[in-house]
Structures are given as C-alpha cells and as structure tokens.
Amino acid sequence: MKLRHILLIAIGMLLLSACNMTLASDVTPPPGYVPPTPAPTLGPLYPDQAPDVASGEMIYAEKCTPCHGQTGLGDGPQSADLPVSVIPIGLPEFANEASLSDWYAVVTQGRLDRFMPPFASLSDQERWDVVAYALTLHTTNDQLELGKKLLEENCADCGQSFTNLQMMSALSEDDLVKFIREGQGSFPAFGKDFSDDEAYAVAAYIHTLAFAAPAAPVAAAPTETPVAAETESTPAAEETAVDGTPQAEVTPEATEVATEVAVAESTVKVIKGQIDNQTGEALPADLKVTLRGFDHGSDPSLGPQEIVTLQGDVNADGSFAFETDFVENEIYLAEVNVGGLKYQSEFAVVPADTNEVELSPIVVYPTTDDLSILNVEELQIYFDFAGEDTQIFAVYFITNSSDKTVMVEMSDGQNIPFIAFPEGATALGFETTNDTSFTSTDNGFAIPPSENPYGLIAFASIPKAKESKIVQPILMPVHSIALFLPEGVTASGTSLMDNGVQSLQGTNFQVYTAAGLDKDSSFEFTISGEPATVSQSPDLTQNQTVLIGIGGLGIALIVAGIWMYIRDKRRGTDDEDELDGEDEDDDEYEDSESIMDAIIALDDLHRAGKITDEAYKKRREELTNALKRKG
After folding, report:
1. Domain segments of the chain as ranges
2. Quick one: CA torsion of 595, 600, 605, 611, rounded to 10 degrees?
3. What does the pLDDT look like over 297-316, one tens digit per residue?
4. Taking the complete model, does pTM exceed 0.90, yes or no?
5. Using one digit for the tens of pLDDT, what is the confidence trace for 379-419?
6. Segments in 221-280 forming alpha helices (H)
7. Pairing of the two strands 489-492 and 496-504
8. Residue 269's pLDDT is what?
9. What is the DSSP string of 423-464?
10. In this structure, which topology does domain 141-208 adopt according to CATH?
11. Cα Rg for the chain, rounded, in angstroms?
C-alpha cells in the first residue's frame, strides 16, 4: 500500500470511527479551536419515508461535490483550500462501516473540527436523500447486479426483511455482511460461504432495498397563468406613499435617501460576548479582545478562510462587542490573553435571519502548579516491530476536571514531569494529538480545565528481542490501560486481562486491558512472539498495522513527522556518511511513485507545522535527489 493511501485511510477514520477512543485531528483547525457545544438532539434516526437517491444526487452535486468530489474521493475543486484533508467517503474502507444514521447525524449537526457546519438549509428528508446517495458512491452497477443475483438465488424471500427504515438506517454494510454470514434467530445464514466480494455485493444491494424506487417519467400537464384580480383595496403603484408622502410627490432624490437610511438601519450587526473572570483578581485595565471570523458563505461546502480579525476593548464588567457585517454560516470566536495565557470562546455559527450573535463566555481560570490535579483517563500503548528496534507509542488521555489551569514546567524544555518512558528505553520525544489544545508558555505549557481529555504521545524505542520485559513508570493516577499488539505477539503480566484478537478498522490487534494504577507505581508486562503481518521495511509509515491502529486516534501525520525527524537525527550530518545516505534513500523506496508519495506527505507535514524548516529542506532535498537517481 502506497504511503499517501495509508495516510488517507488513517486520516479518514476521524469521521467514521466508532471505537471508544478520543479522536484527534491531523491538522489544527483555526487558531485555538475549541469543540463547540453539541447541536440540538437529532430526534428519530430514521426517515419518515424511503430516501430518494435521485434527489440526493442533485443535492450532492450542489452541496458536496466542491469538497468531496464527484466520486466522493475528497478531491473536489475546493478541497485544496481546506486546512484539513477531506474524508474520502467514496472509498469502501469508510463507507462499509457507515450507516445512514451515522452520516445523517454528521450532515445535520456538522463537524466544525473538520470545517463542516450543519446543513440547516436542507430539510430533514433532503438530508436523508443526500446521505443515501453518498452511501452508493463506493458501489458499482456490476456489484449491485451481482448482489441482487446472489440474494435471489440463495434467499429469494429475504428481500422484504430489509425494507424496514428504522432497522436499515442503523445498519452498516459491515453489519449486513455479518448478518448474512451468521444469520440471526430464524433468519438463515445464507451467505456463510460467500467470498468477501460476494458478501459485500449482497450487502450493498440490500441497502438499496430501503431506498425509494426511481420515479417514472411524468408528462407535464398544460397550465394556465392565473390573472390577478384587481381590487379597490390594492393601491396602484403610482399611488403608493413613501413616509406618508404620495408617490407622485416623491422625488428620485428622496427615494434614494429613504432607501439608504432603511438599508443602514437593517445592516447594523453586532457580535458580543462576556469574560467570565474566575481568578478572584481584577482583569487588566487595558485588556484587549480579538474577534476572528471564518467564512463559509451561503454554501457550507466551500473552504473556510479567515475574513475578520478585529481587536477591541473589554469593558469594566468584562463585556465586549463588535459591530461587523456577517452572513449565515460564518464562524466566529473571540480570544483574550491574560497573564501570558490565551483564553477563547467556543466557535459560534451565525444562524439565519439575525443581526446579533452572542458568543459563549470566555472563562479565565486561576493558575496552579499542582500536578496532582491531573489524571490520566486512559493510557493506550502501541508497538511497532518493523524497524531494527521496537518502537513504543504511549498515548496518554489527560483530564483536568478542576477549576484551575495547571502550569507545567518542562525541565530542559524536553521532559514532561508527569510522564516517564519505559525503563531502559531510549526516549525519542513527545507530541500532542490536538484534540484539546494545550497552551504554550515560556518554559512549558498550560492545561486549562476541560470536559475533553488532552492527548499526549510519548515515543520511545527498545532493542528488538524475542522476549522483552516492559516496566512503564506511572507518575500520575491512571484510570485504565489498554495494550495493542500486532496479531501474533502476546503479552503476560499479573494485572493483564486478555481481550483476544479484535479488529480495529479492518486490522487485527491482540488487545489486553488492565485496571487503573496509582501514582508512583509501575505497569509491568512481558511481550513475546512475532507479528503475523508486519512489514520488514524500517519505514514506520509502511507498517499498516501500527498506522491503522494509531490512525484511529487521528495522529498518523504526527507519527510520520516524528519518524522522519528521528530518522534524520539518527543519520547524522557528517559529510563522510553522505554517499551512504544516498544509497540508503535509493534502497528505501521501490520506485519513483513511492518517492513522490513521500514528497507529498512531507509537504503536507511541513504545511501543517509538524516538522521544522531545516528538517523539511534537508529531507526534501534527499528525496528529490533519490527521485532523480530513480529516473
């Protein structure tokens, strides 16, 4: 699998992943993004009437094609303007695991972290229509014909079982494949001998049984244009008055002035907010507030751009207001800097027909350096066996449920005081998952209170061995631990519970869990065995098992960036090794296309700010030279 395809799959899991994990974006949304308040409840997650795919196709062409592309591969003309990758909903990897209700919820509530606001302009039925059409993008006519043939040959009377809208809206094609292979109750397992292609062909066809049948062409009936009746109560145009003045007496100049006044009065628009100061101290007298606006315009599918950056004063009572023109679906937030820390409101989407937008309060918290306030909600540990050493990825989901911002000082600018690497491991560094934004400080970072967990990834390596004992120090309370090993590798330890082999986005992991641990304890276990499907390439981005697993967390690009930085650091910059480095580049990639994949991924990482300019220039030059030699 090529590099860009692997990264694409990993990024796409952000939207459709159903696993109980904290998902993280590969690229940070607009500055200091905070997840918005959830949209109102959706109501019944099934349509009143069967979705009309033909209607959905027209809606998709207008609303979705600019970003998702005609075939749903995320290659629409506006996709390049987005700071995040567009989910390729037309690929089976994503569509097979999605249900109509999943995508209906996204279209209805939006995904602002992916720059997709709610499609409030569509009616409820239109949303069901468009997601029904979107769910057909990964299928072909030949596949549907095969599915129909297999269903009729193996279970001729089964079709009526799949027309219930409530049931079919909740089932994905993965669910249907399991259903036809294993059966349920008195329903036969008629597809137990189907190949994967046959099973998914039947599942795709079954989904269409819940769609409305194509409408037959109807000839347009002749119509007559009605003639409006004249009544005495309707004044003639020449008799209409302006400001009480008969129209005949109104001059063109007077009409123009009246129009300008009316327009001016109707377009005074205000965005206002309030600072909720919980520090117990007065806010700075000269405190400034910044308003930022992002434009989606009337078509939510267009790529957002920052169109407004205004700065204003904060009133003595903590309130602020900006007079600025805005339109429906634009996105706004406000931010202030207090004591060197940035605080901001949640995003607000401009509703229809309003001249006033009120932002959520900007909460300014007191600060503390008491790290005992923090907890690790979950620790997930992944292993990569593809390189010369075994790589360890420890993903910490950290919570701050207090009413104070915790200030974290990093010694030497590198070490986080509440996270340790496994004993005997070589420490490689840290990275954030950007789910909830840390706030940078001069000597570390700050963790404001949040309902959402903060994600931190610790990278380390250990020498490869047939059996390795892992001792992971626990420096702060951990509520639960999950261990993900490639299939074929096992773990043993007194505190481990074997959860068997589990599939995550189509890749099998041997999963273990452990109960929470107290501060200043350790998590000890031994791993042994060989991965069943691990790549022999030392390129971490070619290890599909690890990338897909961590891709469920939305950090594939971060992993790729860290890996390239580590590899460049290991190579060194000695001139005497330069020739050997060129040979290594040539051997690293099978062909020119693989090198181009790596260059594209490197450019994406640099644009996202995941690697330094120096590392980017050095690595890009190496790849370019390798491409020339391959040519």
Report:
1. 35-134, 141-208, 267-364, 371-550, 572-631
2. 40
3. 444 444 567 788 999 999 99
4. no
5. 989 888 877 888 888 888 899 999 999 999 887 666 888 88
6. 252-266
7. unpaired
8. 92
9. TTPEEEEEEE--SS--EEETTEEEE--EEEEEEEEEEEEEE-
10. Cytochrome Bc1 Complex; Chain D, domain 2 (1.10.760)
11. 29
Question: Domain 35-134, what architecture?
Answer: Orthogonal Bundle (1.10)
Amino acid at 624: T
Give the number of other Cβ atoms within 10 Å of residue 146's Cβ.
18
**β 405-409/489-492 pair status:** unpaired
> 232 phi and psi, to 5 degrees?
-70, -20
pLDDT digits (tens, 9 = 90+) for 456-507: 888 888 998 989 999 999 999 999 999 989 889 999 998 899 989 887 655 6
CATH class, range 267-364: mainly beta
Secondary element (H or E) of residue 169: helix 165-170
Distances (CA, A) of 435 to 28, 33, 439, 454: 9, 9, 13, 6
Q: Tell me what pLDDT residue 120 has.
A: 74
Is there a shared CATH topology between the 141-208 domain and the 267-364 domain?
A: no
What is residue 432's predicted lDDT score, i.e. its pLDDT? Answer: 67
Round to whole Å and give the CA distance between 380 and 480: 9
- Looking up tokens 């037309």 gives 90
CA distance 398 to 477: 10
Provide the 3-class DSSP secondary structure of residue 501: strand
Residue (of 21, 131, 74) closest to 453 by Cα position? 21
